[in-house]
Amino acid sequence: MLSTLSSLSGRSLSRSTLYENIKTGLFVYILLRQTLKAKRHIQARGLFTTISEIHRWISQEVVLLVLRLPSAKAKVEEEMGKAKLDIENQLVPKGPNVVRHLYLPQEGQSLEWILAEMDKMDQEKDGADWRHGRISGAVYHGGDDIEKIIVAAYQRYCVSNPLHPDIFPAVRKMEAEIVAMCLRMYNNLDGAGTMTSGGTESIIMSMKTHRDWAREVKGVTEPEIIIPSSAHAAFDKGGAYLGIKVHTIPVDPITRKVNLKHVKRAINSNTIMLVGSTINFPDGNQDDIVGLGALAARYKVGLHVDCCLGSFIVPFLEKAGLAGGNVQGKYKLEPFDFRVKGVTAISCDTHKYGFSPKGTSVVMYRDAELRRHQYYVLPDWSGGVYASPSLSGSRPGALIAGTWAAMQYMGDKGYLESCRSIVTCARTIAERITTSIDELYILGSPPASVVAFASSHPQGTINVSIAAVQSFVGRSAK
Ligand SMILES: Cc1ncc(COP(=O)(O)O)c(C=O)c1O
């Protein structure tokens, strides 16, 4: 009896010891994982940035807490109401002739009525005069003639949908040809790609592709990418959508190129992809793609080159005789396409300097094997086999047709000419700012179509120059 009792208590003792050991093991495992995560984070972002991130996070939490207090809540709601009204006044067409149509009309309206109503909306809000080149960025207009071509192609393929290639084989063919033409422009004859709805979707798809590739090939389950601080917000958006951690690395204040040493320090076993732009959105500069490519090849990670904005300008600079920059060596274009070792993907927006209809872009990969990771296939869906290359299911075949038509209409010669005239204009602006306005300087050495300037005044104020800049920007734009 005594021996049974002692063996029972011995067993429960050893069970509780086992339980304690498991608990301790689990605790050590979690502690180790979190320590490793923290180490990687600090290694990538630096101690100072990490501390300021923690400080910012705590401040935000405190502010949110304060805003929940009833008195603060009422004040915030009042201010938000004012801001909303302000935005509405700025953006929503208003006026005596504008009627808000919040119900379906009982009877369908005629084309004349619809166009007249649109006229009223356009007239009541005096939007920027983009048709005459009076707006910087935002609009990429190839001219009235190309608009007609696009509308004709759109009309013809209005209801087409490449989700059903058996019904619309012409659309599938046009999409494949658009991708092939872009791959050729970016010097990759063995590559692959797909069309998407715009630069953001191209970038997000490339992130997904590299994430799934790294999971399959390297077993990465906590993916991270490394981007320059000048990279487009689409990378942060993709990170938020896809559960990918984004490390943002500062750019050099003079060259505006990402700091390669810092990029190298941020690479770890979870890194799936590096990013560089040719050219970036904020100031039109180009990252050191050759340097990034060498890092990508050395650490066996992807390198996405964002040419969404460079699109149909950067591939033509060499042929236009503008890649070498000016006599002082400014505005020089460095290698950026698939000829650079380590580049695994490039995004190129047809709806920017390709002058195709809005809602089109191309994402390209070094080879078809990498592209495979972009696709989504559900073979046993109750509605039949579902296969789709990008975020959307149904896609507008009309936009593909419009893009194909625009590219056929422009041709190599058309894009070469547009590259020459746009870049010459940008460089004239940059040169005039440099030589005639002491208070301003050009950020970096932008090789293509975007020029950004800042104040050289110590307090960062610009006293006299905006009117002068506007007047000669206006002249150059003509
Ligand atoms: C460099 C760069 N990347 C990505 C994008 C995103 O393109 P989209 O607005 O077509 O989504 C832009 C847009 O201006 C851009 O300039």
From TrEMBL:
Record keywords: Endoplasmic reticulum, Lipid metabolism, Lyase, Membrane, Pyridoxal phosphate, Sphingolipid metabolism, Transmembrane, Transmembrane helix
Q: Which domain of life is it from?
A: Eukaryota
Show the GO cellular component annotation of the record.
Answer: endoplasmic reticulum membrane
Q: Which InterPro entries match?
A: GrpII_AminoAcid_Decarb, PyrdxlP-dep_de-COase, PyrdxlP-dep_Trfase, PyrdxlP-dep_Trfase_major, PyrdxlP-dep_Trfase_small
S-adenosyl-L-methionine among keywords? no
- Cofactor(s) the protein needs: pyridoxal 5'-phosphate
Q: Where in the cell is it found?
A: Endoplasmic reticulum membrane
Give the enzyme's EC designation: 4.1.2.27
Q: Which residues carry this modification: N6-(pyridoxal phosphate)lysine?
A: 352
Do you know which Gene3D superfamilies this protein is assigned to? Aspartate Aminotransferase, domain 1, Type I PLP-dependent aspartate aminotransferase-like (Major domain)
Q: How does it sit in the membrane?
A: Single-pass membrane protein
Q: In which pathway does it act?
A: Sphingolipid metabolism; Lipid metabolism; sphingolipid metabolism
Specify whether Transmembrane is a keyword of the entry.
yes
The GO biological-process annotations, alphabetized, read as: carboxylic acid metabolic process; sphingolipid catabolic process
The text of the family note is: Belongs to the group II decarboxylase family. Sphingosine-1-phosphate lyase subfamily.
Q: What is this protein called?
A: sphinganine-1-phosphate aldolase
